[in-house]
């Protein structure tokens, strides 16, 4: 039951292609290295590990128990008095949550982990807050978007919101909180859409400060401001893909003209984010109305052409190259509805990114999961459901078939999850009610 609309060429095109607990005296670096050593062969589900002494092989059950012991130690270390120890634990858990499907392990400990992350968000410094926010987003992805994820989102949303809107907080922490709010709301959005509306409004309040004033003048960016605006705008555009047609029409009318003005931003990365968001909004507008036209469309195309051919020597060469490439794609889509398709391979499968909406959703997961995104596409039923890939393909039936089956059963038999899935299929329908 796919949750994102297929591209204009009709198909998702997914399928087979050729193609021991640490001693109390151990250092933080040793703990991190020890935990991460269990993930070197994650994508293949390898069940044989080398022991430090003697090179003896252990069976999969023993390896699993040892891995879980190390994860438990990392969770315990989240409340350590040492900042260095807490940061090392957060990083170890981030790596683990990205590279493994840990639903069974985390379901039993979600409240404990949630409490620890809340403590880090409330009392930690900027770096710890940023790491905790990212880990929370990963926790929601691991829990699969069901009641457990919604429970965690309701618990931590207030503190994430507080940090995001706090002008005195670390910019890095605020960026991570923006991304976490967008992702966690996306995977655990409530049936009535209340969480979606609140999250959209909150993120708007952040990036709208980059809009021109009443006289049309662009505000002077503050240090770190464009990066924060980019994170908030990307999180907002992810949530826009869930909006019903009625709500989407309002957002298009409100934001498209203002975003066009932001193409003149002095920050290249923010300009690129704005350009991609404009393309996404136009695509969504065309889906709900075949005759949709961009206000001041000719002016928009002129601005896009200028950015696509920018040769300003005052800008770094790599920035100019990146900007030209992105804005050529945006311009081609606005003028001809031409999208450059991308093929993502993982295991023996592939998924095609054939629309701006699919690109925004994939990029959002990639930003959080980093190098683990392909493993999660291969084995995490939540991502497979979102991208229409079907149940995980098990080439070797001995590789954790029982745990994967249990996870699938939870996802597809949960009444709450079914309700959320039904809503996400409905919100892209033109007949959806006004939110």
Polypeptide structure, described:
There is one protein chain. With 435 residues, this protein is mainly alpha-helical. Helix content is 62%, strand content 4%. It is built from 19 helices and five strands. The protein has helices spanning 28-36, 60-77, 83-99, 103-107, 110-123, 126-143, 147-165, 171-188, 194-207, 225-240, 245-261, 268-288, 297-308, 317-336, 356-369, 373-379, 381-386, 401-413, 415-427, and strands at 15-16, 49-50, 57-58, 342-346, 349-353. A three-stranded antiparallel beta sheet has the order 1-5-4. A two-stranded antiparallel sheet has the order 2-3. Helix 6 runs parallel beside helix 8 (171-188) and helix 11 runs antiparallel to helix 12 (268-288).
Relevant terms:
mainly alpha; single chain; globular; 435 residues
What's a concise summary of this model?
With 435 residues, the chain is mainly alpha-helical. Helices cover 62% and strands 4% of the residues.
